[in-house]
């Protein structure tokens, strides 16, 4: 009996990370999506920048509800439904886009960090399988999820959800309706590598792709929580919904539990560090062995690589704008087109 209890407590401690939350985008600070309207370039408040969307009211593109989150994500009190409809064209572009960007000055582009989120689709308003969708991406697109038919590929449709590095697929699965995909990008900005952690439903994250070399490029304000859909002739627009939960960025050890650090407002502690401390204080005989096990199971030494001094942005990527520090040259045959003071793009 004692050994069973000991094993249970050990598993609980191992499931909690001592990581530090650098930025929390779990929608716990928002009453409704209309709170996103409070943000502007002149009034940069709240957890998100909100400027990449169509001309309709915010509720046409982003809505919040407890029904929209992963039920296993107890650190969030609600999730977000991000929508593409027939008005979701931003700034005169021919691509449909609804995207949120972290509003933070934290060092989310330094050292080794973990970008967390959960993603789900339904049979109602599903993402089109006949167009390429770029999901949870950086401006330089060094890593991202993709779904649907990849531009330039044979055939007319694709039912996979993919994780890509530099445009190359490193992992894929059938994107089945109603299944929550829990993700952490393991990004080492210093070493120039990125790895992929994944699980479904309530299962803890496991590393499914070890860190690989990548041209990691971020100015600390260019991670897009949302979706960009590339245009394709002959395929009319249809409304598409993407469900998001558990969005946050942490440093230190990786939180593998889908419940996330702490608990939603109104119940329990608010950080993974305090949760870990409270549990380990009653298990002092396990502290040393648990810490060693955490290091062994959740971290690894990535190979050291050198980030190229020059880089070329791919089609549709950002290539200029105020405060932008990523690639400013476009890969051939694309050119950098000015759209506004904050954004230029390779077209």
Question: Keywords, please?
Answer:
mainly beta, Jelly Rolls, 2 domains, 8-stranded antiparallel sheet, 7-stranded antiparallel sheet, 3 helices, disordered N terminus, carbohydrate metabolism, polysaccharide degradation, CBD
Describe the overall structure.
One of its GO terms (cellular component) is extracellular region. This is Carbohydrate-binding module family 1 protein. Residues 258-311 are annotated as: Disordered. The chain has 347 residues and is mainly beta. It folds into two domains: 2-302, Jelly Rolls (Sandwich); 308-347. It is 10% helix and 34% strand. It has helices at 2-14, 272-281, 287-298; strands spanning 20-24, 48-52, 62-65, 79-84, 96-102, 112-120, 133-138, 143-147, 160-165, 168-174, 181-188, 193-200, 206-213, 223-229, 240-251, 312-313, 318-320, 329-330, 336-340, 343-346. The strands form four sheets. Strands 1, 3, 4, 6, 11, 12, 13 and 15 form an eight-stranded antiparallel beta sheet that branches. Strands 2-5-14-7-8-9-10 form a seven-stranded antiparallel beta sheet, with no helix packed on it. A three-stranded antiparallel beta sheet has the order 17-20-19, with no helix packed on it. β11 and β12 (193-200) form a beta hairpin. It is globular, with a radius of gyration of 20 Å. Mean pLDDT is 83; it is low at 1-17 and 267-309.
Overall form: globular
* Percent helix range: 10-25%
Proportion of beta-strand residues:
25-35%
Number of contiguous helices: 3
Number of strands: 20
Cα(first) to Cα(last) distance is: 65 Å
Biggest sheet, in brief? Answer: 8 strands, antiparallel
Structural class: mainly beta
Q: Give the CATH architecture of the largest domain.
A: Sandwich
The stretches of 5 or more residues where confidence is low (pLDDT under 50) are 1-17, 267-309
Order of helices and strands: HEEEEEEEEEEEEEEEHHEEEEE
Mean pLDDT figure = 83
Keywords: Carbohydrate metabolism, Polysaccharide degradation, Signal
Protein name: Carbohydrate-binding module family 1 protein
Domain CBM1: 311-347
Biased composition (Low complexity): 270-309
